[in-house]
Design a protein that fits this description.
Chain B: It is an enzyme of class 5 (isomerase). The complex is a heterodimer of chains A (about 375) and B (about 800). Helix content of chain A is about 55%, strand content about 0%. Chain A is an all-alpha fold. In chain A, helix 3 packs across helix 4 and helix 5 packs antiparallel against helix 6. Chain A is flat, with a radius of gyration of 38 Å. Helix content of chain B is about 55%, strand content about 15%. In chain B, a hairpin with a 2-residue loop joins strand 1 and strand 2. With about 800 residues, chain B is α/β, with parallel strands linked by helices. The chains are: A mainly alpha (about 375), B alpha/beta (about 800). At the A-B interface, helix 2, helix 3, helix 5, helix 6 and helix 12 of A face helix 1, helix 13, helix 17, helix 18 and helix 23 of B. Bound molecules: iron/sulfur cluster and zinc ion (2 copies). One zinc ion (ZN) binds next to strand 2 and helix 1 of chain A.
Chain lengths: ~375, ~800
């Protein structure tokens, strides 16, 4: 990689014309895109001089040859040519260099004691990269040497990090795939449900028509009403399926899907149960929820029991005592007798529902109508 | 008028109150007491704003917490209106109470509307006003000036520093106009006065964006405490506002400008290295230490806004590889080049942020973390370089914001690249849409931070949709009907033309001559019977144009012309306002006019057609969104996946809320009257999605009409309306005096007492029964079989 070759673009801060992939005209053969719309440009990372693919063919087919740019005396091979991803070839070159650097300096934040160390490391790497990309003469040679040195010395570590990285990557990819598959399945399921619903409706309509045609026992209106009722029930069920869950567990976070997705992706509850050891409490957590038992309580009354040998009795444990005392102290908290009674009387479960009921009672004659719906939301 | 709601004394600035206003206030109070969010739908023209303000101000003044009110509205005129209402209310309160309360109310809008600087305020674009103002008011400009350098400053801004910082403007309610006048008199900048005084206000009225757009909210609304009462008025479109505030479009042009900006930065850094190395070194040190000067970063005149970052990230040090200025600029350039290379693709693609980041990392070695810091880092750099001509960097900032957003949010966003403007376009004009799909993201901080958020509008049906879409729980959801002494509006659904052929704007039939002709006849007929003004809404500009040209060919417009002037809304704001002016003149002088406009346009949202300005509104077709849009498709998919809202449900909800908006335009008060016509076969099924107050007024016989029948009904209705109507007829029914209100309250109390009594009695009866059962059990204890016994035990256990 000769410095001279990429000359015009190298110094940061000067506003020289950047080395870019040409839009329409090949700088070598001067062919124009208007005559050949499928024209593509290629570069060789030796010197990053762009030329059209036809030039590449004709010049380098027979073997290594010199770069057709007048100022450039690099010898290039056909194999090295490729299309540039970036129109700005300075960037292209920079990215190529970064690729090399990244392969060597592949530590992650976990490898460092502190964030600050990591940041310093990042900056050092960046400095090195800058020397490689924009450095002049010796600066760049130094940087190259440093890079090579580091690679030599830390070969094992680099390999290890690489492996770690690719493992993590693989895991991530797998996760992603699983999530995608689950989403697709969900979508298919929904579509199927909808199609079914539509079909059902079609069938019902058909029935109405047929019944009407036959002029069956009784009048047509009655049949219609009957079938309509059936249809309504169906619809209600469907709606409940669709809207029920999101309303039910709309906790403070409000979004229901979180719970949902977990269910779909993980094993079902049944499966999980089978895999777990038998639990006589059937999953009821005995962990206290309102307090945590500390290891140590400052209490003169307890001190002797802990320390004096003669206080120690087989089976007795201060911790047990403390736990029990705490349990008794907190027992009964969170049980609202009044509330439970109230909900019994009105046969609605949540406090919100109670509020809703209360509101409807007080807000008078002009708030009728929607009441039903509003209540539904809370139930 | 003065009354109590529970223990709260409410001063209402009118001698009479509407029943629905009273109910509305009751529910508001309940929400505030409960400390939760609510969704309230109040019919248009029933004095929503004034009820809201009088209740909340009463609440503020009565309880010791003095909870602050943040009232968000959409447009500047709405803000001004609300401020005026507030001002009147406070005056009334002062009269009633006999003293002026310690109270301050302010409104805030953009610099463009509030600027006083003689040359800055003349700029046309808001962005340029902002930029120029910043370059005059930035912190370092002042420093330079203090050092004796010759720099431009804004005297209006600097005068503020001479005043007491918490008393820049006296107490009272300041309308925007009043604020401007005060600023002119005292030579102080109204914009910054309002901004700085915000913490010391009891009521703030400003636009949604100051709270929802995270880029602005961070700076403007940071200091409000948790117990503020937040109101979103006219909130039926709030989900779209949320989404827009987090979405961004990037074009080739903006990338080109961004490159130029980056090159400028590079040059500046070079210059500064020569002259003032120290500055750069200082900044660098600060970044190394992770000492982000909180004060500085939050400064009101900070040059650029940062999109939301989680707080923990804000405290973290900037990643090492973008600490140095030149490193950062190279980083930006690489990112921009990457975007450019993506733009070259001629295929439509859509990808998640995660995928985008992976691809980015693979090809440019840009990691997610520095990307997240991009906007923040750029702000710091610009401040260090003391750049003043900020317009040059506007697009660069956009790109940086985009970088931060894309690296911050993984879920609920999508990147869509559209190389061509339309499917038929030949010349590529690529746009990279970074679209937010989840309205809940932008509004979540608001719900999290404030204990009471009130979402209200004239048309916000179905109410359940909003909590679902925005991800919150409402303690109160209520829709009020309009109490009317006479039936003052007539909603109808026209499904067929006079020839009994169904009419609809569904895609298959919309251009059929019979449908077009039937719509034309409908228009002519109504133009004939309607006095004065008439408004017609179409689902889209495209359809409006095509149907107008077809009508022209059929001679229908000539017919209409006989009765009314014809005016058309266009996407151009100036043309439209001219059309509106003409329309109003024609309505006033008796010529009469029809205004043809679009259901999603400006007219449908913000302009009122009260009284003779609108006697009929004709909604031609269900205003569905353009479903081929990729962004919409993505959002629909997201809604289905995440919130289980079906596509059709959402589309129909969205169409109906716009239709309802259109209908609400003509009825702006209780003494107003108007005809509402929904002309599409498909409306019949969607009737229940209309706001309750419209739906209830729709008679069963009016939901499936043909044109001729509709015209008959309209004629009859108009004849009824022409009968003399005295204000007295309303009293006690649709308008309450204080006595009526007291009566109502007494009745309510009585009902409640009855209720309680009944409950008591029931309890007693239960008790008695239980006693008896017990006695019985004691009596023939031996005869009892086991089942009974268990039952009894249960009862006992419960008692
Ligand atoms: S400080 Fe105020 S008056 Fe001065 S330029 Fe800015 S907005 Fe205008
Ligand atoms: Zn060539
Ligand atoms: Zn070369």
């Amino acid at each position: 990689m000769s410095r001279r070759a990429t000359g015009p673009t190298t110094t940061l801060g000067t506003m020289a014309a950047p080395n870019v992939v040409p839009e329409d005209i090949c700088p070598v053969c001067k062919r124009n895109r208007y005559l050949n719309s499928s024209m593509t440009f290629k570069i060789n990372p030796e010197c990053y001089h762009p030329m059209c693919s036809q030039c590449v063919e004709t010049i380098f087919k027979t073997g290594p040859n010199q770069c057709p740019y007048a100022s450039c005396n690099k010898t290039l091979r056909l194999k090295g040519f490729r299309e540039a991803m970036f129109a700005d070839l300075t960037i292209q070159r920079e990215v190529d260099i970064r690729k090399r650097v990244a392969a060597v300096f592949n530590n992650t934040q976990d490898d460092f004691e502190t964030l600050r160390d990591y940041n310093n490391y990042l900056q050092d790497v960046e400095d090195l990269t800058f020397s490689l990309v924009y450095g002049e003469g010796t600066e760049r040679a130094d940087a190259e040497a440093k890079l090579a040195d580091y690679e030599q010395q830390h070969r094992a570590e680099i390999e290890r990090n690489k492996k770690k990285g690719s493992d993590a990557e693989a895991l991530r990819l797998r996760r992603q795939k699983e999530a995608d598959a689950a989403a697709a399945a969900r979508r298919a399921e929904l579509l199927r449900e909808e199609a079914e619903a539509r079909e059902e409706e079609g069938k019902l309509n058909q029935e109405v028509m047929e019944a009407l045609q036959r002029g069956e026992s009784g009048n047509a209106a009655e049949i219609q009403a009957r079938i309509l009722a059936k249809k309504k029930a169906k619809l209600a069920k469907l709606n409940a399926e669709h809207f029920g869950p999101s309303m039910d567990n709309a906790g403070p976070r409000g979004i229901s899907i979180r719970g949902l997705r977990q269910k779909r992706t993980g094993p079902t509850e049944d499966e999980e149960d089978r895999n777990k050891p038998y639990d006589p409490y059937a999953g009821v957590s005995l962990q206290p929820t309102r307090y945590t038992v500390q290891d140590h309580y400052e209490n003169p009354f307890l001190e002797p029991a802990k320390e004096r040998e003669d206080h120690k009795v087989g089976g007795y444990n201060v911790q047990e005592y403390v736990a029990r005392a705490m349990f008794e102290a907190f027992a009964g908290l969170g049980v609202m007798v009044g509330e439970e009674k109230a909900s019994e009387q009105r046969s609605v479960g949540t406090t919100a529902a109670r509020d809703a009921v209360a509101r409807n009672k007080t807000s008078g004659p002009m708030t009728t109508g929607r009441r039903q719906e509003v209540d539904d939301v809370f139930v | 008028m003065r009354f109590f709601i529970d223990d709260l004394p409410v001063l209402f600035p009118y001698p009479r109150v509407y029943p629905e206003q009273y109910a509305y206030m009751c529910d508001l109070k309940k929400t505030l007491d409960a400390g939760g969010h609510c969704v309230l739908e109040m019919p248009s023209g029933t004095g929503k704003t004034v009820s809201l303000l009088s209740l909340i101000v009463a609440y503020q003044q009565h309880y010791p917490e003095h909870r602050k009110l943040i009232y968000c509205s959409r447009t500047m005129s709405e803000i001004e209106k609300a401020l005026q209402e507030l001002k009147a209310l406070m005056k009334f309160r002062a009269n009633e109470l006999g003293h002026v309360e310690d109270f301050r109310g302010l409104g805030l809008t953009s610099r463009k509307n509030l600027c006083l600087h003689p040359s800055v305020k003349r700029e046309k674009s808001g962005a340029i006003v902002d930029a120029r103002c910043r370059s005059l008011t930035a912190g370092f400009v002042k420093e330079k000036k203090d050092k004796g350098e010759n720099v431009d400053v804004c005297i209006y801004h600097d005068n503020l520093d001479l005043l007491e910082p918490h008393n820049l403007i006296p107490n009272g309610v300041w309308t925007l106009d009043g604020l401007l006048r005060y600023g002119e008199q005292h030579k102080q900048c109204p914009y910054f006065t309002a901004r700085r005084m915000m913490q010391y206000c009891n009521v703030i009225i400003y636009s949604y964006h100051y709270l929802l757009d995270p880029k602005i909210a961070e700076r403007v609304s940071k200091e409000f405490s948790k117990d503020c009462i937040v109101v979103f008025d006219e909130a039926h479109n709030i989900d779209n506002v949320c989404i827009e505030s987090l979405s961004q479009d990037i074009t080739e042009d903006s990338l080109r400008k961004a490159t130029r900006g980056a090159q400028n930065l590079e040059r500046k850094i070079g210059e500064m290295k020569e002259t003032d190395r120290e500055q750069l070194e200082n900044e660098y040190q600060k970044l190394v230490e992770g000492l982000r000067d909180q004060e500085e970063a939050r400064q009101e005149d900070a040059f650029m806004a940062n999109p939301v970052l989680p707080d923990d990230l804000l405290k973290e040090a900037v990643p090492g590889n973008i600490r140095r200025a030149e490193h950062f600029v190279a980083f930006l350039k690489r990112f921009i080049e990457y975007l450019k290379s993506r733009m070259k693709s001629r295929k439509v693609t859509s990808e998640t942020p995660t995928y985008f980041l992976d691809h980015l990392k693979e090809h440019t070695f840009i990691e997610k973390k520095p990307l997240r810091f991009c906007a923040e880092r750029l702000t710091s750099l610009v401040r260090t370089l003391e750049l003043t001509n900020i317009e040059d960097y506007q697009t660069l900032q956009e790109v940086a914001t985009f970088a931060t957003l894309v690296a911050t949010y993984e879920k609920g966003f999508l990147l869509i690249l559209e190389p061509f403007e339309s499917d038929t376009a030949e010349v590529p004009n690529p746009i990279l849409h970074f679209t937010c799909l989840d309205a809940a993201i932008a509004i979540k901080p608001v719900f999290d931070r404030f204990s009471s958020v009130i979402i209200t509008s004239g048309t916000i049906s179905p109410l359940e949709m909003y909590p679902k879409m925005l991800g919150f729980n409402a303690v109160v959801m209520q829709s009020y009907t309009m109490t009317l002494a006479r039936k003052s509006f007539l909603p109808m659904i026209v499904t067929r033309g006079s020839d009994q052929a169904p009419v609809s704007t569904s895609f298959q039939v919309r251009n059929e001559p019979s449908v077009v002709r039937n719509y034309g006849n409908l228009l002519t007929e109504f133009a004939r019977v309607t006095p004065d003004g008439m408004v017609v809404f179409f689902p889209s500009y495209l359809y409006m144009e095509s149907i107008i040209s077809m009508w022209q060919g059929m001679g229908i417009l000539d017919q209409v012309w006989k009765y009314k002037l014809i005016l058309v809304e266009t996407p151009d704001a100036q043309e439209t306002s001219l059309a509106l002016e003409t329309y109003r003149t024609a309505c006033c002088n008796g010529r009469g006019a029809v205004l043809l406009c679009v259901a999603r346009g400006k007219v449908s949202e913000g302009i009122d057609f009260d009284h003779h300005y609108g006697r009929t509104v004709l909604c031609i077709g269900v205003p569905f969104q353009y479903t081929e849009s990729r962004i919409l498709k993505a959002r629909l998919e997201f809604l289905r996946e995440t919130y289980r809202i079906r596509e059709n449900d959402f589309l129909s909800f969205d169409a109906m809320r716009h239709a309802a908006q259109c209908l609400g335009r003509v009825l702006r008060g209780k003494d107003d009257y108007g005809i509402m016509v929904l002309a599409d076969r498909r409306f019949q099924k969607k009737r229940d999605q209309l706001p309750k107050w419209i739906e209830q007024a729709m008679l069963e016989v009016d939901v499936n009409l043909s044109t001729d029948m509709a015209v008959l009904a309209a004629k009859r209705f108009l004849r009824d309306m022409a009968q003399p109507f005295r204000p007295k007829d309303q009293e006690g029914i649709s308008v309450w005096s204080i006595e009526d209100l007291r009566k109502h309250q007494a009745q309510m109390d009585e009902e409640r007492i009855l209720e309680l009594q009944k409950q008591n009695e029931e309890n007693m009866a239960e008790e008695v029964r239980r006693q008896q059962a017990k006695a019985l059990a004691l009596d023939d204890d031996y005869d009892m079989d086991e089942d009974d016994e268990r039952e009894l035990m249960e009862i006992d256990g419960m008692a």
